[in-house]
Design a protein that fits this description.
Helix 6 packs parallel to helix 7. The protein folds into 2 domains: 224 residues, L-asparaginase, N-terminal domain (Rossmann fold, 3-Layer(aba) Sandwich), CATH 3.40.50; 120 residues, Rossmann fold. It is built from 10 helices and 21 strands. It is elongated. It has 412 residues and is α/β, with parallel strands linked by helices. Strands 3, 6, 7, 8, 9, 10, 11, 12, 13, 16 and 17 form an 11-stranded mixed beta sheet that branches. The termini are far apart. This is asparaginase. Its EC number is 3.5.1.1. Keywords: Hydrolase. One of its GO terms (molecular function) is asparaginase activity.
């Protein structure tokens, strides 16, 4: 039986890996290297200068930058010749419309001399992450699912604007799976001075290639955040992401520290769930409550989208919104629930928490509106898309599952 293009490339990379020196200053290191798949989607990290400003490009420039960086590629990997940024890329394989580049090997990443092998699989379409949709999530999820048995972990290279949404949906699509999936990016492109992308990629490879951690996380600015707990809080700070209601899982300080090392999910042979294809029509709408909001305004937005199956209401404080009869909001929400549209209330606050303390909250519960507890908007959006895409569930089952913490996304 003839080998596939991917298997042939793996074979060439493994041969190169076998000839790589494995002796560190701490002694011989003969343990098997983990192999990681890095999926490139575009975003700031892969952007290059263009006449119209920085934009993600789908040339081999991104790969060549990584290949020539001393923190990400061992010089022993190219023992026979010095590979510079300008050196051509001789061997690539087309996977559908995606491009698989030659395998790379990191320098030693720890005091035990651990190295990590990794492939860069570039999507056929590099995009600004503001253009990310459930269709692209389906593509990324399918690639991870199809390659699950070939790799020890995955790194998703993403733009930052929707990075937390991507991490949240992957958390639901790959819940309880026994390998790490890290999502990372950069505030400054690799093509520019002072890029933070180098460290974010290095930390991602460290997590996926050397640690026992499994699950979906965000690696950014020397931290690992839980995938379904994070939100982007700054377009300027290198620490662009926070998890407002829970501490970071891992801090890459001089000494690596953990929130609770014993509670981190461990690698296992547990496979991912069957691949779920997300609905790509607009199914989840988000409505921000503001002074003067009326039920007529609310319903007009929802009625304009016939495919709507769920609505996120970003309410005041602990989930409060106008329920007086004059506003008509309560009556509109009741009609939506009766039409079997999932209605979820989350908080507009930076540190969210929704609980039925006031009359408004208790009244909403009585008509079937669901509390979002301490969900971020990203996690609420991802969870609802995941739920409405599961055609086998009844409306009541979707309501019940929404109120159940599934991937650590909320505290009830």
């Amino acid at each position: 039986m003839s080998s596939t293009p991917l298997e042939r490339l793996d074979s060439r990379a493994s041969t190169a890996a076998d000839t790589t020196a494995s002796t560190s200053i701490f002694g011989s290191n003969n343990k098997k290297r983990r192999v990681i798949c890095c999926v490139g989607t575009g975003g700031t990290i892969a952007s290059e200068p263009t006449p119209g400003g920085l934009a993600p490009t789908r040339q081999d420039t991104f790969f060549r930058r990584i290949r020539s960086h001393p923190s990400l590629t061992s010089p022993d990997h190219f023992a026979s010749d010095c590979v510079s940024f300008s050196s051509p890329v001789h061997t690539t394989i087309t996977e559908g419309r995606n491009i698989l580049y030659p395998r790379l090997i990191t320098p030693e990443l720890d005091d035990e001399g651990t190295q990590v092998e990794y492939d860069i699989l570039d999507l056929d379409k590099h995009m600004d992450s503001s253009e990310m949709t459930p269709a692209e999530w389906n593509t990324v999820a399918a690639l991870v699912h199809e390659n699950w048995d070939k790799y020890d972990g995955f790194v998703i290279l993403s733009g930052t604007d929707t990075l937390a949404y991507t991490a949240a949906i992957l958390s639901f699509l790959f819940q309880r799976a026994g390998k790490p999936i890290m999502v990372t990016g950069a505030q400054i492109p690799l093509s520019r001075p002072r890029s933070d992308g180098w460290t974010n990629i290095l930390d991602s490879l460290f997590v996926t290639g050397t640690m026992q951690y499994a699950g979906v996380g965000i690696v950014f600015h020397h931290q690992v955040l839980q995938g379904a707990r994070a939100t982007k809080t700054s377009p300027n700070f290198f620490g662009a992401f926070t998890s407002p209601c829970v501490p970071p899982l891992i801090n890459f300080n001089v000494k690596i520290t953990y929130d609770s090392r014993d509670s981190l999910p461990k690698r296992s042979r547990h496979p991912p769930p069957p691949l779920l294809k997300l609905l790509t029509d607009p199914t989840v709408l988000s409505v921000h409550i503001y002074p003067g909001m009326t039920g007529a305004l609310l319903e007009a937005q929802i009625d304009s989208v016939p495919t709507c199956k769920a609505v996120i209401i970003s309410a005041y404080g602990s989930g409060n919104l106008p329920i007086n009869e004059e506003s008509g909001v309560l009556q509109s929400l009741k009609r939506l629930v009766e039409r079997e549209v999932l209605v979820v209330v989350i908080s507009q606050c930076a540190i969210p928490n929704v609980y039925p303390l006031y009359t408004q909250g208790r009244t909403l519960l009585d008509i079937g509106v669901l509390p979002g507890y301490d969900l971020t908007h990203e996690a609420a959006f991802a969870k609802l898309i995941w739920l409405v895409s599961r055609s086998e569930l009844t409306f009541r089952q979707r309501q019940d599952l929404f109120e159940e913490p599934l991937v650590g996304e909320m505290t009830v």
